[in-house]
Amino acid sequence: MTDGPWLVVGLGNPGAKYAGNRHNVGQMVLDELAKRTGGTFGSTGGRAQAVVAEGRMGVLPGGAPGPRLLLAKPTTYMNVSGGPVSALGQYYGVPVERTILVHDELDIPFADVRLKRGGGEGGHNGLRDTTKALGTKDYVRVRVGVGRPPGRMDPADFVLRDFAKAELKELPWLLDRAADAVEAVVVDGLDAAQLRFHTKG
């Protein structure tokens, strides 16, 4: 599982206005991964509408260098994320099988993390546009639970709000867990990562 780079994309909206929104939790996870790998986000020089940080995941048992990660945050709005994802994959020569999208998920309780490859987009515009651009659904998703909106609040309004004060206390733990999930997929494979993160206790 360590041959060639992995493309890890954190979905969100650009700019300070949206930075703390639930919809941007994927990009928050990418910031955590960049800290771990020592990468610094920078422009792709026009190759894609995204900022990219490159790094390696430490050292594997036996002394071999860890897998190379290309961490990307699109600079487009969420609903047109597919173009940057496709352009990055083509430029760096990363196949869909080694592409991971990290995104917010309304259908998962806050602070839970779930993993899957393929399947539906669940009304998530960033996933929908990525599927359209790639021509396939067979990329890995790290689904970061943000919970359901209270009462009759529109889900679209809910994800464009910042995390509540109580949630902010748990947010660092959630970002850490989601980053762990990305690393588990890369090092151990999706099946093993699912067993680890989907098992309670």
How would you summarize the topology of this molecule?
Blueprint: E1 6-10, H1 25-37, E2 42-43, E3 50-56, E4 68-74, H2 82-92, E5 99-105, E6 113-117, H3 125-134, E7 140-145, H4 155-159, H5 165-188, H6 190-198
Parallel strand pairs: 1-4, 1-5, 5-7
Antiparallel strand pairs: 2-3, 3-4, 6-7
Helix pairs in contact: 1-5, 2-3, 5-6
What key phrases describe this protein's structure?
single chain; 201 residues; alpha/beta; Rossmann fold; seven-stranded mixed beta sheet; 7 strands
Describe this structure in words.
The chain has 201 residues and is an alpha/beta fold. It has a single domain (6-198), classed as Rossmann fold, CATH 3.40.50.1470. It is 36% helix and 19% strand. The chain has six helices and seven strands. It has helices at residues 25-37, 82-92, 125-134, 155-159, 165-188, 190-198; strands spanning 6-10, 42-43, 50-56, 68-74, 99-105, 113-117, 140-145. A seven-stranded mixed sheet has the order 2-3-4-1-5-7-6, sandwiched between helices. Helix 1 (25-37) packs across helix 5 (165-188). The model has no long low-confidence stretch (mean pLDDT 92).
